[in-house]
Amino acid sequence: MKDWYKELVVYQIWPRSFCDGNGDGIGDLEGVLSKMDYLEELGINCIWFSPLYPSPNADFGYDIADYRNIHKEYGDLDLFKKVLDEAHKRGIKVIMDLVVNHTSDEHQWFIDSQDKNSPYHDYYIWRKGKGKRPPNNWLSCFEGGAWEYSKKLDEYYLHVFAKKQPDLNHDNPKVREEVKDIMKFWLDMGVDGFREDVITFISKRKGLPNGFPIPAACGIEHYMDGPNIHKYLQEYREVTDQYDCFTVGEAPMMTPSNALKYIDESHKELDLMFHFQHIEADCFMVDYIQTKFDLRKMKRAFSSWQEKLNGRAWNTLYIENHDHPRIISRYGSEKYRTESGKMLANMYMLQQGTPFIYQGQEIGMLNTKLDSLDEYVDCFVKNNYNVARNKVHLREEKCWDWAVKSTRDNSRTPVQWDDSENAGFTTGTPWFPVNVNYPEINAKKEMENPNSIFNHYKKLIKFKKENDVAIYGDYKEHYKNSSKLYVYERNYKGKRLLVINSFTEDNVAFEAPKGFDLTKGKAILCNYDNTTVQGNGFKTRPYETRVYLFE
Ligand SMILES: [Ca+2]
């Protein structure tokens, strides 16, 4: 069976930085409405909204204070419905971010939970301490310990992320009913599904035993893929099965074989899954422990997911989102921005799976650099700096380098629409500084230039949507040992694609793999004009990408 979510190209909007419609410096839904033509021209057919709900913004919307409303900074429910209708009119689906591992500490449930006699007390994970110490040794994934003490209750609550993000107790059936009601609320309104935030963390091991003593996220083995995770996700699936919608779950530290327990098409709990393996090719586990970019590590990750999911489950394809620095600055080259931007686009979007594009990626936005640590707003930055300084004992400059290169703020600068003041993002003062490169890098300029990254994405999206070989084709990698080239083929009903990507400035001698005669293929989606072939190959130019279509 063909499922429609397999034929989508999804565009992620992180609303605060997308477009400001009322001049207060903060992106909003009026701004989104004003860019609907832009999104339609780009050719995407689904929008994923990062959280739009009321939130004190301790983690920019990933700390929700009310699941059934829209943050007043972004608009209101009526305006959201207008955006939804406008999108649907253009054949664009809309999915919401469902963040139910935790709420904000300003959610009414949490406020009420601070009364031991309230039914809401058991909505969260409140525990007695051990003497003067917290209930166990768990550490937060963000900063410090995972327990916060309440003097009033003489109990601690669990927060595996920031202390303003108390974990919900999904073992309580009432909490699960609430989650289902929230899902129904948005699905009944007409949204087309959910991206589910750290959904694999929602089931905690009974008794909350001590974790293996690691310096960050200690205890994670007791809630990652926890004991009841599949039971709870199957319950949530019963809700989504009643609607024509799809779900994509975020799953840190996920492997393909483990993922199949969630997304195998014979017993799906989720339709799709975001894993992290391919975006760890220049770091160790987390973005801030940086290593040299290792192409072979990236290729191994991509190929392993392509091969292991083929015929059994469907991949998500992405290279950027709101949690990671800009991809050209990481895996490509700022010097060869246009060339490497197009190459990276071909490289991931032509694999098997549903591609996701993060706002600004389609115009080749780059990492930012501010003057001091205090100007950054991501709660990670200072923590990462301190870890580098105090735990890894790096030199001052190196700590600064680690912190600013890895910060999530890199992808959260306002979208650069044109070369007017504040990049056309706002008529007011932007909530976070616009990248100073906006006079050169902006959507207007990109749209006007036929050879831009934007126009490449436009062609690529069209090709991906219209060619079954790009959607459903089998995947096979070539030259696995190359540390400079990433080459793979796709096959579907007699049609073939050969995708050739260079990750270097160097000229590399490429020869077509056995069974391919380049002179019989059509060169498409290239990033250089001249596509001459010598023998059955060519010498690559910096960050060259070529795709050959054989029909
Ligand atoms: Ca605004």
Description:
With 551 residues, the protein is an alpha/beta fold. The protein has four domains: 4-102 and 173-372 and 408-461, TIM Barrel (Alpha-Beta Barrel), CATH 3.20.20.80; 108-158, Oligo-1,6-glucosidase, domain 2 (Alpha-Beta Complex), CATH 3.90.400; 373-407, no CATH class; 472-550, Golgi alpha-mannosidase II (Immunoglobulin-like, Sandwich). Helix content is 27%, strand content 16%. The chain is built from 15 helices and 20 strands. The protein has helices spanning 29-34, 36-42, 77-89, 108-113, 173-189, 229-240, 256-263, 295-309, 327-330, 337-349, 379-391, 396-406, 443-448, 453-466, 468-472, and strands at 10-13, 46-49, 93-98, 126-127, 147-150, 155-158, 193-196, 246-250, 272-274, 283-284, 286-290, 316-317, 354-358, 474-478, 485-492, 495-502, 509-511, 522-524, 537-539, 545-550. An eight-stranded parallel β-sheet has the order 9-8-7-3-2-1-13-12, covered by helices on one side. Helix 5 (173-189) packs parallel to helix 6 (229-240) and helix 10 (337-349) runs parallel beside helix 14. The longest helix is centred in the N-terminal third of the chain and has 17 residues, at 173-189. 51% of the residues are buried. The mean pLDDT is 96.
